[in-house]
Every structure is written in C-alpha cells, then in structure tokens.
C-alpha cells in the first residue's frame, strides 16, 4: 500500500515539475489564416403603424446598398394633423434630409405690435442709461488720492526694492566668477558615460 502512495506522490511531483513553456505559444503551432470580408449585403424594409387598429399615422421605408449608402423616407402625422415627410440619404459624407411640408415649423415667428413697441421702449431706455454712464460727472473727484505718508512709503519701498535687486545682481556676478575660476583650475572628468539597458 505504501508503494502506491509513494508512486502517486512521485507522479504528482513529476507533473508539477513538467515543461509548460509551450502553453502560451499556440501561434507557433497554428496556421495563420485571414478571412476576407463578405460581399456587401443590401437590405430593405418598410412598415406602417398606428396608435390603434386600422389607423395608420406613421410610415417608414429604408434601403441600403450594403456599401454604406442608405436611402429612406418616413412620414408621420403631427398634433396639428399635418402629414410631415422626410426623405433622407446617409453616406460617407453625412446625413442629408429633405423636409416636406415643414414650412410652418421652419418659419421664424414675427413680433406682434405690442412686442415691437416694448423692444423700441427698451432700446430707448438702454441708450439713455448708456449715454448717462458714458461720462459720469465727478468721476475724477471720486478717485482715491495719494497722501504724503503713502507717497513716502511708496518711495521707501522702491528704494528697498532697488537695493535688494542690486544685492542679488552682485551675488549672481560673484557666483558666476567663482564658477569660472573653479572650471579654470579643475581637471576635466573624461569618464565616458556607460548606458545600461
């Protein structure tokens, strides 16, 4: 009995240590094939529908050549009981509808007499306010004025700013001179750069 247990144990260890390097390489063992695209499949459909049996209030018809060009039409009855129809073509250049019986929807609404009068009143009031605010009286009188203490503080600030800027410039010149002196007295490092990849 112990022989069978040892044999089973050794076989299971052997399976665990087996060569599995071929598992992810199916492409080496398979032939590569390419599938050519099928020929274009044209289609066509149409339907009529209504909100209750025996009543048709919309219609659609469409056909495609299978190569990307689609022609179609649809019609419906709008809430004003007008039949609206759209003929369309869709191709690689976009969607191109032709609207029929949409003239009343596409027309821009006209202002009534009351709206026209209110617009004129609004424009007159706008012009009056704009002209009044274009050059308000006493604008320069309301600007803040600089007092003597503010002028002194501003001058002191500019003096300190210029002093600090001059100090920073002197430090920059000193560091540049130190760098040039260091480079002049240093031995250049000729170690070639090694690129590790």
Describe the protein's architecture and organization:
Among the domains are: 40-132, no CATH class; 148-183. The two termini are 57 Å apart. It has helices at 2-16, 26-29, 103-106, 113-134, 148-185, and strands spanning 43-49, 58-64, 70-77, 83-91, 94-100. It contains five helices and five strands. It is of the alpha+beta class and 197 residues long. The protein is flat, with a radius of gyration of 44 Å.
The portion of residues assigned to helices is 40-55%
Order of helices and strands: HHEEEEEHHH
State Rg.
44 Å
Beta-strand share of residues: 15-25%
Overall mean pLDDT: 83
**Unreliable runs:** none
Q: Could you give the count of β-strands?
A: 5
CA distance, first residue to last residue: 57 Å
Please list the strands of the largest sheet in the order they lie side by side: 1-2-3-4-5
Which structural class fits the helix and strand makeup? alpha+beta
3D shape? flat
Features:
single chain; 197 residues; alpha+beta; five-stranded antiparallel sheet; 19% strand; flat
Question: What can be said about this structure in brief?
Answer:
By secondary structure, the protein is α+β, with helices and mostly antiparallel strands. The chain has five helices and five strands. Among the domains are: 40-132, no CATH class; 148-183.
List the helices and strands and how they pair.
Elements: H1 2-16, H2 26-29, E1 43-49, E2 58-64, E3 70-77, E4 83-91, E5 94-100, H3 103-106, H4 113-134, H5 148-185
Antiparallel strand pairs: 1-2, 2-3, 3-4, 4-5
């Amino acid at each position: 009995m112990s022989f069978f247990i040892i044999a089973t144990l050794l076989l299971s260890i052997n399976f665990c240590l087996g060569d599995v390097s071929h598992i992810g390489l199916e492409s080496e063992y398979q032939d590569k094939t390419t599938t050519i695209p099928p020929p274009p499949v044209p289609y066509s459909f149409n339907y009529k529908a209504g909100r209750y049996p025996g009543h048709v209030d919309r219609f659609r018809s469409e056909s495609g050549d299978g190569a990307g060009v689609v022609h179609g039409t649809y019609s419906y009855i709008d809430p004003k009981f007008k039949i609206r129809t759209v003929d369309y073509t869709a191709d690689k250049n976009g969607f191109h509808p032709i609207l029929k019986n949409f003239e009343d929807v596409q027309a821009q609404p006209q202002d009534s007499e009351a709206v026209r009068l209110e617009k004129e009143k609004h424009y007159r009031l706008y012009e009056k306010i704009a002209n009044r605010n274009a050059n308000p009286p006493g604008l320069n009188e309301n600007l803040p004025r600089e007092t003597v203490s503010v002028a002194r503080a501003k001058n002191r600030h500019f003096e300190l700013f210029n002093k600090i800027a001059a100090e920073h410039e002197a430090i920059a010149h000193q560091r540049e001179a130190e760098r040039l002196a260091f480079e002049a007295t240093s031995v250049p490092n000729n170690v070639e750069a090694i690129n590790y990849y």
